[in-house]
Sequence to fold (270 residues):
Amino acid sequence: MVGHRKLKPDRSIFGPIQPVIVLIIFGLTLVIWDIKTALIVLVAVYLAYFAFTMYAFLRVKNYYFLTAGFFQIMAAVFFTFNKIGPIPLSEDMMRGIVLILLASAVMAGYTLITKKLKWWGREIFELAAQDVEVDPESFTERPKPSGKIIYRREDLFGFARFYEKNLLGLYKRENGTIIFIPVKMNEWANALYNPSYNYKNHSYVAISFDGSVSTFISKKDYLNYKEDLAFDHLTASLTNLHLDFFDWYQGGKEERIKDSIKEVEGNIFT
Fold:
């Protein structure tokens, strides 16, 4: 367990606000038009969510996105075919749809509660800072070289896929280098869906095919700590954390990676 937290509390409401936004859209449409139009809009919203969820699944290959997508598509089906919807079906058919919808809601709820779709970037930054002391005015916004390692290239590609699939963050291949970008829960949608997202404005650890390692910590991430930490030590710690993860992956100890991250307990939305 991690004791003293070094990061400031996450005040983001991106996760909890989603159902509220859907209800507001539904309510406004209902007031302005009628129930059938409101349900059509609700169907469109859930289909849009489904499309974004399927994109996320195809991008990171985390199969738990399918449980969320299944609930979203079943919600769209329910709002389409219920007796006041745009295409009403018989009560017998609707009972079947309702049962499937409830089952999908249970699966989606399990996925949410057990943090299967939680992005672990915040926990990575917390772990990196645990043994770092305070040192005001030590921040420098530039990548720092962190030595060289020896590895098999196929292991690096495998670790990159593991990194994304388990939602530690995203990776990018560029100029003979794999860049590992930790992603926090309040940033994942921007990182995943924004076509102008530039990893160079965010913290990362880069491992080149020749074994060179470099690390960059963004000013935004650095200022997210409660105190000004010793920057060189923090950079080295974030580097070593990723290299430890890579070593564990190469040794077939993937569960050790997950266990170390989950020692930093956070709620499902942060």
Summary: The first strand starts at residue 144 and ends at 148. The first helix runs from residue 14 to 32. The chain has two domains: 33-113, 121-262. Residues 33-113 form one domain.
